[in-house]
Input
Amino acid sequence: MGIANSISPGAASAATLSPQLASPAATLGRGAKAAREFEAHLIGSMLESMEKTFATLPGEDAMPGADNYNYLGTQALSEALAAKGGFGIAAMIARHLPAHEGTG
Output
């Protein structure tokens, strides 16, 4: 059984959850792109905090360079999660942006 067959037919896709953010980054407006980057930063902060809390065992020495490696992995994961809709924060921000554009 392949990966495509193992996904349940009722599972919601990123396009269903947040259609504005499921489009390629090149077609996003500045506001939607900023909203997605904001959500990626929030997710990254949360993941970084969780990684620092749970990644090491008491009494275990950290490997040299592990912090840099973990940071890069956390950033990549948070950007990927945000690109697929994340927690929906960017979609909420993008929905409310048109009402406030041009005011300031």
Summary: Residues 3 and 9 are 12 Å apart (CA to CA). The longest helix spans residues 30-54.
